[in-house]
Amino acid sequence: MGFSKSMVVKAIDENGESNLEVILETLLTVSEDGENMLMLDKEGKLLYLIEMGFPVEEASSAIDAYGPDSSVMELLDFIYASQMAKTAEKPLQEPPHAIFDDDETGPSTSHVYTSTNKKRKNLFDIENTWKRRCEKKSRQDHKRAILDEDGVTLRIPVPMIGFGIPNDQRPLFERKLPGAAIGPPYFYYENVACTPKGVWDTISRFLYEIKPEFVDSVYFSAAARKRGYIHNLPIHNRYPLMPIPPLTVQEALPSTKKWWPSWDKRTKLNCLRTRVAPVTQKLRDMLERCDGVPSLQTQKDIVHECKQGNLVWVGKNRLAPLEPHEMEIILGYPENHTRGGGTPRNERYNALGNSFQVDTVAYHLSVLKNIFPNGITVLSLFSGIGGAEVALHRLSIPLKNVVSVEKSEINRNILRSWWEQTDQKGNLIEIEDVEQLTADKLEHFINLLGGFDLIVGGSPWKFSIQMCVLT
């Protein structure tokens, strides 16, 4: 299965040499430094994707396109892009609001309750407990379907608009949170929408049984990005960032308009890929062999490849993947947000691939503007490149204190650089690993900063898939 030697030795030391079943269980559920999924070989990743429910053909195509060294997150994005390419012409259906529990619908809550240090610490303890239990879950637990109270499999809605999107004419959704979940402190957790079976159910259990709000960033940007969010934020009186970002590829990347053929009807990208299959030269050769306008079949073949690879037109008969600065634009970050400090180009892609879509997140966090007009104190778990911080800043919510937990040195450098470039007046406290944020240190920060107003967590890779490995 591609596990490292150190992982195997550690599993044997912990469980003894004779109990092979327990050793295998340990290898499949616990990783050294939480990164065992990165160590799976081609066969392991193929089995993982099949276990998630993807057809063998789709899983194999993704691995062939990206290569055996690609991450599961990249493979998932490729599969979703391929699926979207096949269903792009199908009409959208109304969202099945029935996926939410009956006791979650009711009068909206607009009261602001006084936060306490004890409540803040309890919330963090809950998240830590959830993390530890996910790491120890058995394969049998992971294979359970996500069920609601009626025993019906939880289905992701189409269209994926959550509790509403800007300028949506549908009736406002109402939900009633459990009393213990009413903020502050507020929490906001993001994960990829299509997770292994049981993951969303597990997360909900440890976050007050709150069901995820599924949103596709295609309604906020020029690219699809299907995510789920579990949070206790108010859901009314949200507002989008201004100015409204470009919502089509040609608006976001105007230089492509000159070269975009009329027969390529794409206006959105299916996802933002961090690796690109080497097909651009093949497509160029196909186009140059054509005498004038390509045949309908050639057009169809080229558009199909473009949808799968999210390629854009950059010249006559020339297609190319997005550059990092173009991804930054579509994701809502300042241009060159990830540039500088010696960050390699491929690392910029990786950092952006695991980041928040700022406009989407800002829409959800906009309700905090009136609650914290004088500034906010944030605990940011797995901060990445600072998507939540950028969103709050663009909402003009002052960042009084940010305790940022991020293992990647590159990501920490990016966030620190942005903090300095935007002349933030608050305090940025950096912690390299969540394991360093002990209960004593957490209590120290609570006493020092007066508690946390918002706890932001989640990276599609680091904060879920690596902790809840489906075997």
Which features does this protein show?
single chain; 471 residues; alpha/beta; seven-stranded mixed sheet; two-stranded antiparallel sheet; 18 helices; globular
Helix content: 25-40%
N to C succession of SSEs? HHHHHHHEHEEHHHEEHHHEHEHEHEH
Which percent band covers the strand fraction?
Answer: 5-15%
Largest sheet: 7 strands, mixed
Q: What count of helical segments does DSSP give? A: 18
Secondary structure class reads alpha/beta
What do you see in this structure?
With 471 residues, the protein is an alpha/beta fold. It folds into 3 domains: 5-87, no CATH class; 97-244 and 350-465, no CATH class; 249-331, no CATH class. The chain has 18 helices and 9 strands. It has helices spanning 5-15, 20-29, 42-51, 56-66, 72-87, 117-136, 139-142, 199-206, 249-252, 280-288, 296-309, 324-331, 345-353, 358-365, 387-394, 409-421, 439-449, 461-465; strands spanning 186-192, 213-216, 226-231, 312-315, 318-320, 376-381, 399-405, 427-431, 454-457. It has a 7-stranded mixed beta sheet with strand order 2-3-1-9-6-7-8. α14 (358-365) packs across α15 (387-394). The relative contact order is 0.12. Residues 173-471 form the SAM-dependent MTase DRM-type domain. One of its GO terms (cellular component) is nucleus. Residues 39-82 form the UBA domain.
